[in-house]
Structure formats: C-alpha cells, structure tokens
Amino acid sequence: MIAGMSHLTFVVKDLDRASQFFTMIFAAEEVYTSGERTFSIAKEKFFTIGDLWIAIMEGEPLAERSYNHVAFKIDDSDFEMYKSRIEALGLELLPPRPRVEGEGRSLYFYDFDNHLFELHTGTLAERLNAYHDASQQPELIPIDDALRLRAYDGNFQLAMPWYQDPFVYYNSEGMTDPRSVPDEDYVGKMYEYLAKHGELYFIEVLEEGNFIPIGDVTVKEENLPIVIGVPKYRGRGIGRKVMQAVLRRARKKGYKKIFGSVVYHHNIASQRLHESLGFKCVSITDNERVYEVDLEEFIDIN
User: Fold this and answer.
1) HSE (side-chain half, CA atoms, 13 Å) at 119
2) Cα-flanking dihedrals φ and ψ of residue 289, to 5°?
C-alpha cells in the first residue's frame, strides 16, 4: 500500500545554484549535504519544504524543456510575493495558459536546469467544480434584477415573430427580399444548429412581475449571434448588458477569444456595440465587417 510521496529528486548541473533556487523561491531548509563523501551515485543535497523531502543531485541537466512539471500550492494572497522572488532570480516566467473561471491562478517557471515548476492557488476540488460549471449549460444566468438569460428549451416558436420582423431579418440574416422571410422550418433548423454548436439562451426581461422572452443569444466561439426581437426593447442598453454576460460566460468556459463575428455594414448599432466591448474589426468585405475579441484582454465594465 502506498503511504504517500517519499521524495522528489532533481538532477542539476550546479548544486550551489540549485540550492539558491530552492531556498530563495520555496524557503526550503537544507538538511543534508554529501560534500565529497557520496552514499548515492553522485554528490547531493537534501531539503525540506514543509513535510516534503527534496533531493538535488549533481549531473547533466535536462537537454530539452517540456510541460512535465511539479506544482506547489500557494495562497492567492502570496501570488505577487512569489512572482517577485522568481523575477529576482532572473528566471523565465511563462505566459499563463487559458483558464476556466474559478480554477485558481498559476505561476509557471523553469529553474536553471530546464525543470518546470508551477505555483498554483487552487485546489483539486475547486478545479473539478470549475470544470463542471464550465461544461454544463446553466438554466439561468441572472444579469440584473430585471434581465436574465434562460437556456433554450426547444420552443423555437417563441422566436417566430422576431425573425419575421423586417428589421431583424435585414440586420441579423442580411435578407432584403420579403419573399425570403424566415419561416418556421428555417427558424427551427437555425435554433437546432445554435443549440448544438453553442449555448443558446432566450433573453428575458421582467415585465409586470413575470419574465418574458424578447430575443436570443448564443455563447459560441465563432460568430456569436444576438437578436433583440421585440422592438420596444431596442436601444435601451440591453444588448450591451447581454453581451457582457455572454463574454463572461465564454471566458468561464475557457474560450480564449471570440472570432468571426459578422456585422453587416448597414448595422451601425451592432458595430458600435462590438467596438465598445473591445471587439476589433479584422476584415471587411463588400457588405460586412468581421470582428473578434481577445477574452484575456476583455475588461468587464458596466
């Protein structure tokens, strides 16, 4: 039966320099040095970090770097302190990887011998919960007291009046011919596609004590669509609040960016909305502009 971890051994080129690494970064306590008298296969030193036994042994360091690494738990309040220690030794800090909201923060850095270390603020339970929350579409996403997103329940017929409104099918679908107005088959298949390739929600507002659907939005990485289908709710800032909530949800799901969002040239309001949220126009065609946003740079401003 495994009782626990015994020790970790790192082969290093210079014992003194490696000693400096472990004592300065981890506040490790040196408890043994072999000197010239070796009991193992090479000169070595032992350290303790809490209850963990660390051994460093003189030899040839790793020839190449990899993502194989050892991670230590730290408190979030100590994050900047450890970052300063790493920088003080002149070590290379790696850019943070995309993260699901709630799984904690990490510092990734190599020692002098190509070993990769991580200092992580989260726990296994927090990461499992974060991954579960990110993978499961929530039934409701509250935005404020009178605005929320409700997961699509299969009732696409609710949306029929929206997509038969000339304003919507012109600005959302790019249709100008009244004979091409979306019918029930079109809307049903569209909703089926959106629900399969993203998280589809009805946008709902509180009216006379009840939440009523007024539009839809889909959380997806490519060409994120939003429609305010009821005319009286357009131009009231609802689209901006919804998009902020959607971008937060996308970041929580671990998306790195939203790309390929198509806005027609005539839809000036949508262009302004996207640009106000940090979207950048990356291409222009005869009748449309294509936007994307880096979610790591997205600033959530109400």
Assistant:
1) 21
2) -120, 145
Domain 140-294 CATH class label: alpha beta
Element housing 107 (H / E)? strand 106-110
Q: How far is CA 102 from CA 131, 133, 253, in A?
A: 9, 9, 10
CA-nearest of 251, 276, 161, 273 to 215 is 161
Domain boundaries, the chain: 1-61, 62-136, 140-294
By CB neighbour count within 10 A (0-12 exposed, 13-18 middle, 19+ buried), where does 30 fall?
middle
- What one-letter code names the amino acid at 104? G
Q: Is 1.20.120.530 the CATH number for 62-136?
A: no
**Annotation marks residue 44 as catalytic:** yes
Widest Cα–Cα separation across the chain: 91
In degrees and rounded to multiples of 5, residue 29 shows phi and psi of -105, 125
CATH architecture of 1-61: Roll (3.10)
User: What is the pTM (predicted TM-score) of this model?
Assistant: 0.64
Structure tokens at 134: 């990110």
Q: Which one from 30, 44, 221, 292 is the annotated catalytic residue?
A: 44
Q: Are 106 and 70 in contact (CB under 8 A)?
A: no
pLDDT in tens, the chain (302 residues): 998 899 999 999 999 999 999 999 999 999 999 988 888 889 999 999 999 999 999 999 999 999 999 999 999 999 999 999 999 999 999 988 877 778 899 999 999 999 999 999 999 988 888 887 778 899 999 999 999 999 999 999 999 999 888 887 777 777 667 677 788 998 999 999 999 999 999 999 999 999 999 999 999 999 999 999 999 999 999 999 999 999 999 988 888 899 999 999 888 989 999 999 999 999 999 889 999 999 887 766 44
154: exposed, middle or buried (Cβ count in 10 Å: 0-12, 13-18, 19+): exposed
Whole-number Å distance between alpha carbons of 61 and 112? 9
Tokens of 190: 């569209």
